[in-house]
Amino acid sequence: MSRRAVVAFVFCFLIALTQLHGAGQPYSLITVESLTKPQYQSLLGLGLDIARVDGDRLEIVATPTDLHDLEQAGIPYELMIEDMTAFYQARLPKARDMGGYMTLSEVNDAGN
């Protein structure tokens, strides 16, 4: 197999891999509370990203696929932030494109 074919295969494999892992899907913040024991066990079986636990209240970072899985399992949830990327981008200063951090040239200019 030629080198070019190997590179093309690896490139296609990496693209397919990112698609399988939900790349580009918006992440939402949801809360789940007051679950029954079977619901709780079902929730744990889904392998979701539980960000915070406060008593019987769980905060979960979820993709649309995760939300669908919760609905299929009959687990009620409350949507807190629909699109976390947009939420955090809206909090950044408009003049800065690096999350409030300066580029090296901005640091050098500030020191002069």
Strand order of the largest sheet: 2-3-1-4
At the fold tier of CATH, the topology name of the domain at 26-95 is: Alpha-Beta Plaits
The profile of the biggest β sheet is: 4 strands, antiparallel
Got a strand count? 4
Structural class: alpha+beta
- What helical percentage do the residues reach? 40-55%
Calculate Rg over CA atoms: 21 Å
Low-confidence stretches: none
What share of residues are in beta strands? 15-25%
Distance between the termini: 56 Å
Shape: flat
Which sequence of SSEs, written as H and E, runs from N to C? HEHEEHEHH
Fourth CATH level, the homologous superfamily of the domain at 26-95: Metallocarboxypeptidase-like
**Which CATH class of the domain at 26-95?**
Alpha Beta
Overall pLDDT metric: 82
The CATH architecture category of the domain at 26-95 equals 2-Layer Sandwich
Write up this protein.
The chain has 112 residues and is of the alpha+beta class. Helices cover 46% and strands 20% of the residues. Strands 2-3-1-4 form a 4-stranded antiparallel sheet. The model has no long low-confidence stretch (mean pLDDT 82).
Tell me the layout of helices and strands.
Blueprint (H helix, E strand, L loop, with lengths): L2 H18 L7 E6 L3 H9 L3 E6 L2 E6 L1 H9 L5 E4 L2 H7 L13 H8 L1
Antiparallel strand pairs: 1-3, 1-4, 2-3
